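Appendix C: a fully annotated inverse folding record. The material below is reproduced so that readers can follow the format used throughout the book. The structure is listed first as tokens, followed by the designed sequence.
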């Protein structure tokens, strides 16, 4: 019985799975039998430092031996240090952190704060965006209500804006809007980078209408786009950003980072989480951010991402979208087919909701030789 068959015995069968079962992993490689698979997917954009990074292993080992877990019922230096590091890394006035366990939970809390502070109950989201699978995050996820949103009603009214349609903004972002939530580069939507003019129009409309701007940086944040956050690239000033995935390099962790103004309106009892800000997650946040700085990984991302963009079109790839290490390769063929053909060549990439885009979300420690093997493999595939 292989692991897939074993899983089927007692795990609900809700995931489509790939035909590999990694037994170990190191650096950017997943090891499966005698195969070494270059991981351009990072477990849904989580493994930002790859596998077995010595700094991560050391920090985890030390923290596990010191205090494995305590909740927010007590203050801990390790949690304070993680919040310092994240606030330092975040742009502008985003200086205050609330730790969660996932992207959905971060978004859930951001939306809750927006409704509470504005006293409004309409949220604007962008077509093709993805924000998670809980009640509020699912409500602002494009297509969710048709596809899998099983709650009888959403917690607030939702208006969707067609992406990059700046002309539609004034009719949709109004003085009834509590917040606009968006991904600057839509991850699951195909690593599609929103038009900066569209984003600026939204930011201005939010200011004019007293609505909050929430940037979902769950996939784009923590250096992935070659800057600390995609917010730095788009030069907007959100009220809140949300993170998860790479923030602790593989230990479940999310966070909501808010401005001084928002923080001033939040008090005891407004938010809470048992596991959020636990010591293992906290020490990993500090470690991930230290390693990104010390190893100049954002420079590496910008340089290798540039190499990928420069080499395209190649094989079935027509064009490139996205930023840094959140790249979408737009294909002339089916993304699933190309993904499978690359996997046969020991290269793992992701797909997206765009049937013609494969998504690259590699660890930041990727090297030129890995990019060359991806490009070489793509060049061998049928173009049409
Ligand atoms: C942009 C974005 N927001 C939110 C989420 C939800 O994160 P999680 O699965 O940790 O709840 C995801 C997950 O893919 C995401 O890509």
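Designed amino acids, in order:
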């Amino acid at each position: 019985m292989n692991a897939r068959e074993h899983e089927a015995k007692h795990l609900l069968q809700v995931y489509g799975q790939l035909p590999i079962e990694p037994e170990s992993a190191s650096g950017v490689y997943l090891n499966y039998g005698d195969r070494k698979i270059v991981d351009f997917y990072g477990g849904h954009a989580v493994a930002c430092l790859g596998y077995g990074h010595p700094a991560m292993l050391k920090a985890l080992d030390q923290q596990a031996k010191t205090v494995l877990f305590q909740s927010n019922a007590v203050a801990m230096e390790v949690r304070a240090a993680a919040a310092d590091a994240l606030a330092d890394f975040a742009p502008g006035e985003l200086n205050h952190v609330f730790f969660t366990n996932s992207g959905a939970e971060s978004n859930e809390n951001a939306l809750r704060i927006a409704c509470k502070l504005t006293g409004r109950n309409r949220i604007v989201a962008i077509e093709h965006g993805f924000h998670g699978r809980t009640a509020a995050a699912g409500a602002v996820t494009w297509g969710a209500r048709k596809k899998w949103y099983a709650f009888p009603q959403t917690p607030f009214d939702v208006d969707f804006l067609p992406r990059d349609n700046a002309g539609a903004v004034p009719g949709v972002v109004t003085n009834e809007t509590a917040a606009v939530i968006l991904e600057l580069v839509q991850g699951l939507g195909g690593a599609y980078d929103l038009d900066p003019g569209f984003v600026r129009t939204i930011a201005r409309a939010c200011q004019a209408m007293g609505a909050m701007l929430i940037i979902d940086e769950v996939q784009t944040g923590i250096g992935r786009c070659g800057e600390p956050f995609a917010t730095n690239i788009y030069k907007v000033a959100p009220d809140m950003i949300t993170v998860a995935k790479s923030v602790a390099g593989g230990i479940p962790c999310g966070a909501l980072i808010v401005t001084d103004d928002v923080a001033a309106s939040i008090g005891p009892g407004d938010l809470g989480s048992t596991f959020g800000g636990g010591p293992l997650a906290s020490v990993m946040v500090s470690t991930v951010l230290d390693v990104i700085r010390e190893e100049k990984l954002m420079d590496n991302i910008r340089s290798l991402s540039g190499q990928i963009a420069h080499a395209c079109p190649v094989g079935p790839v027509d064009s490139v979208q996205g930023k840094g290490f959140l790249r979408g390769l737009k294909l002339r063929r089916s993304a699933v087919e190309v993904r499978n053909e690359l996997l046969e060549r020991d290269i793992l990439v992701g797909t997206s909701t765009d049937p013609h885009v494969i998504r690259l979300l590699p660890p930041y420690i990727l090297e030129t030789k890995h990019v060359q093997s991806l490009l070489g493999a793509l060049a061998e595939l049928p173009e049409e």
